[in-house]
Design goal:
Layout lengths: L3 E7 L3 H11 L4 E8 L6 H14 L7 E3 L13 H4 L21 H10 L6 E5 L4 H9 L7 E7 L15 H5 L1 H8 L5 E4 L1 H4 L3 E2 L1 H9 L3 H21 L4 E2 L3 H8 L4 E10 L10 E4 L10 E7 L1 H12 L3
Parallel strand pairs: 1-2, 1-4, 2-3, 4-5, 5-6, 6-11
Antiparallel strand pairs: 7-8, 9-10, 9-11
Helix pairs in contact: 1-2, 1-10, 1-11, 4-5, 5-7, 9-10
The structure holds alpha-D-ribofuranose and calcium ion (CA).
Alpha-D-ribofuranose binds next to helix 1 and helix 6.
Length: 312
């Protein structure tokens, strides 16, 4: 079986960390590179956190690139209140020693995609879409080299998690999201409506600890910290686990369900900035541009995630 070539664009973030670990533990995927973007934490932390996570996984040969330090138009807003000052609070990571790649992430993304075949590479977007959008603006021809963009972002019946209308990844850089959602690329969206079904309950948290490996203990620590903010906010018995759903979709698409609809990004009003507006019933006549997932078999998701994390 030829591994599926992927690029992971990320703003680690504990949930990003588990997504990266899941990808690195899965032989079905070939991680060509990890491109860091400012989001949960500023870029110097998101890139060094990406390297910390690769070293935790024993993947010191992974290629990590630093990308854009701020959104395309708006000022950067971060989320230390959720992820802690390090972005990976809950586990004490040593300073990374593996090298950061010298190329800018956007330059590397363009170069890698232009050297690829038609529809060859899958982009996994776990943070604000600044890097992806800047690459598309810089070199529009990369769009034909993209097999699919699978991203965590947006919210529909669950509303937003930053404003009543907008989810963090889209809200941080709504203009980048508009570039990506109008790119014509095959787009699969995993919104809050799905990730809020994938709760890290105490029993699931214990399963990470019971793996008994350094990686299992690190995941237990990170998730123990990370879940607290959302548990108090939503009053649930666990925190939603967002970004690993993107990688799980590549590994087991059958545990998800969704609908192909037209989605547009709202960028005109401060109150609704970053809203993902889905035409569920085709009333606008706008052509569908995105498959929006709205269901997940959360038990199967955690079984997959924990089984793969245990391999590291
Ligand atoms: O809204 C959740 C998303 O924003 C996740 O990707 C989380 O890591 C943050 O980037
Ligand atoms: Ca993220």
């Amino acid at each position: 079986m030829t591994p599926r070539p992927i690029v992971i664009d990320t703003d680690p973030g504990q949930d990003d960390a588990l997504a990266i670990l899941l990808a690195l533990a899965s032989p079905e995927l070939a991680v060509l590179g990890i491109t860091a973007v400012a989001g949960n934490v500023p870029l110097p932390l998101s890139e060094s956190n990406a390297r910390r996570i690769c070293e935790l996984a024993g993947a010191r040969d992974a290629k990590v690139f630093a990308g854009c330090p701020r959104p395309m138009v708006r000022a950067l807003t971060t989320a230390e209140e959720v992820h802690g000052q390090t972005g990976l609070d809950g586990h004490d990571f040593p300073e990374p020693t593996m090298a950061l790649q010298p190329d800018h992430a956007v330059d590397w993304m363009v170069e890698t995609l232009m050297a690829a075949g038609e529809r060859e590479i899958t982009l996994c977007a776990l943070g604000p879409l600044t890097n992806l959008a800047m690459a598309m603006v810089m070199e529009p021809r990369i769009r034909s080299r993209i097999r699919e963009i699978v991203m965590m972002g947006g919210g529909f019946s669950d509303g937003g998690n930053v404003t009543p209308a907008a989810e963090f990844n889209i809200h941080v850089d709504p203009h980048a999201a508009q570039v990506v959602f109008t790119s014509g690329c095959k787009l699969t969206l995993i919104p809050l409506d799905v990730t809020h079904q994938a709760l890290t309950t105490p029993a699931r948290l214990e399963r990470f600890r019971a793996i008994g490996t350094p990686v299992g203990r690190a995941c237990h620590g990170m998730l123990s910290f990370y879940r607290r903010h959302d548990m108090s906010k939503y009053g649930t018995d666990g925190g939603p686990l967002h970004d690993p759903c993107v990688i799980a979709y590549l590994l087991a698409p059958e545990i998800f369900d969704g609908k192909h609809v037209a989605v547009e990004i709202e960028i005109s009003s401060e109150k609704t900035m970053g809203t993902t507006l889905a035409d569920w019933w085709g009333v606008t006549g706008a052509p569908p541009n995105c498959t929006v997932m709205n269901a997940i078999d959360d038990a199967a998701f955690y079984d997959l995630l924990i089984e793969r994390i245990a391999r590291l």
